[in-house]
Amino acid sequence: MKNREELLESFESVKYRIREEGIDYCFKHYSDFEDIEDKEFHKLRLAYIKANEEIQEYINVRIEKLLNED
After folding, report:
1. How large is the average pLDDT for residues 4-27?
2. What is the C-alpha to C-alpha distance for residues 53 and 61, in angstroms, rounded to an integer?
3. 26 close to 13: Cβ distance less than 8 angstroms
4. What's the whole-model pTM score?
5. What pLDDT is recorded for position 64?
6. Are the C-beta atoms of residues 36 and 11 closer than 8 Å to each other?
7. Phi/psi at 19 (nearest 5 deg)?
8. What 8-state DSSP symbol labels residue 9?
9. Which pLDDT band, with edges at 50, 70 and 90, does 70 fall under?
10. Which of 4, 3, 57, 25 lies closest to 14, judged by CA?
C-alpha cells in the first residue's frame, strides 16, 4: 500500500492528466490507474465511464429516432 505522499502524488497526477487531456480521455483511454489503491476513486471512475457511455448511447438513439420520424 502506498504511503500518504505517494497517494497524494498519484492524485495530483490524475488531476494534471484530467486538466491536460480531458476527463473523458483520461478515464476511458489514458489509464485505468491500477496504481491508485482507493476503492472510492475506482468506484466513481467506473461510474463516470458508465454514465458517459449511457448518455452517448441515449443521444445516438434519440438522433436515430428523430431522423426516422414520419
Report:
1. 95
2. 12
3. no
4. 0.82
5. 96
6. yes
7. -65, -40
8. H
9. confident
10. 25
9-28 burial by CB neighbour count: b if 16+ within 10 A, else e?
ebeeebeebeeeeeeeebbe
**Phi-psi label, residue 26: left if phi above 0, alpha if psi -120 to 50, beta otherwise:** alpha
Determine the Cα–Cα distance for residues 9 and 36; give it in Å rounded to an integer: 10
Average pLDDT, the chain: 94
Structural domain boundaries in the chain:
4-67
pLDDT given for residue 1 in this prediction: 62
- As a whole number of angstroms, the distance between CA 9 and CA 50 comes to 26
Rounded to 5 degrees, what are φ and ψ at 28?
-90, -30
